[in-house]
Amino acid sequence: MTVKVASFGKTVSDVPNQTVRTATDIGNLQVNNSLLNVVGNLAKNEKNQDFKFTVLPTSASGNLVLSNKSDASVRVQILGPGQRVIADSQTGQGVASANWTAIQPGGEGISLKPGQYTMVVTRAPGNSVSKAGHFDVAMQLGKNTPKNDYTTTIAPATTPAPTQAPNPLLSMLNDMYPSFGSLSSSDSTTDPLSPSSYSATADANFASAVANLTNILA
Fold it and tell me: What is the pTM of this model?
């Protein structure tokens, strides 16, 4: 019997200085029902990215199976509800490393109780944070084809646009000659000095402003 798989996807921005408390939610795991995919990059000088997922209670039984297509420089850890590492892609970590081997495709997997879990993506020991690292992880409960395929793509963190420093001369002109309205260095389509219906008082204020600016620039 062919299982019809429904695919879903979302893109979220990378969270700088992330912790397990601010982990990105990637969805729920249920036996033979959901496949969770996470794809992204550790940016240069970024230490880690954290993700959380929830194992839902079910009457069916199925162990965690995980496919890891990340760069060799990337380390992936699965933490249990008590934030204890239960699986680790880094060798030499005792039971956590043995569990990692067990959850790879073809392995027997490991049993997970209902609750919230965390996946932490860092760099493997000996790899510099000065280089970006790609990660691509997929996980499911049970070995049958899941009915729902969820993909979370992590986009690079956005950098706020730089704020333009105020021009002190324009600020002074705005203060001395309010008839201009609000001037800025970006007002390139309008000439504030073009003739218009200025009053005699406004013209006098303008003359005073020009005189002051002339003294400043002298």
Answer: 0.71
